[in-house]
């Protein structure tokens, strides 16, 4: 373990000793909590889950780093059963948006013809 000049404090969720190093930050600039025991980033096993509503169906979902698609994207997880969220409304919303885009294209053509 390296010698550090940072004071440690207990993680509020699990009690493990951690510290904040101003040289170890996320892309946003936020300091990453570091385990005092091994100087690795702290991944709290008791991190509280903060669900949010799915924008297509309203069902409570959350992000979990263990649920990632083969392409590397995070998959939303159902808060109720901790399973991958497979929103049926998402496909319907995409289809609706595509139809609206096509309808709007037709409307634009009609408007352009009227002005000629």
What does this structure look like?
This protein is an alpha+beta fold. It is built from one helix and six strands. The chain folds into two domains: 46 residues, no CATH class; 52 residues, no CATH class. The C terminus is likely disordered.
Number of strands: 6
Q: Tell me the overall shape.
A: elongated
* Spatial order of strands in the largest sheet: 1-2-3
- Strand count, sense and closure of the main sheet? 3 strands, antiparallel
- Terminal-residue CA separation: 77 Å
Q: What fraction, in percent, of the residue positions are helical? A: 10-25%
Helix and strand run: EEEEEEH
Domains, number:
2
Note the beta-strand portion. 15-25%
Low-confidence segments, ≥5 residues, pLDDT <50? Answer: 110-116
Q: What's the pLDDT, averaged over the residues?
A: 82
Count of DSSP helices?
A: 1
How many whole angstroms does the radius of gyration measure?
23 Å
Structural class: alpha+beta
What would a concise description of this structure say?
The protein is of the alpha+beta class and 116 residues long.
């Amino acid at each position: 373990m390296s010698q550090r000049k940072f004071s440690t404090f207990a993680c509020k969720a699990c009690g493990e000793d951690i510290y904040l190093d101003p040289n170890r930050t996320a892309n946003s600039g936020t300091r990453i909590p570091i385990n005092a025991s091994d100087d690795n980033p702290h991944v709290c096993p008791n991190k509280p889950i903060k669900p949010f509503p799915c924008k297509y169906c309203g069902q409570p979902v959350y992000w979990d780093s263990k649920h990632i698609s083969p392409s590397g994207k995070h998959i939303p997880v159902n808060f109720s059963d901790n399973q991958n969220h497979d929103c049926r409304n998402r496909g319907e919303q995409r289809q609706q948006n595509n139809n609206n885009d096509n309808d709007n294209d037709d409307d634009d053509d009609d408007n352009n013809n009227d002005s000629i």
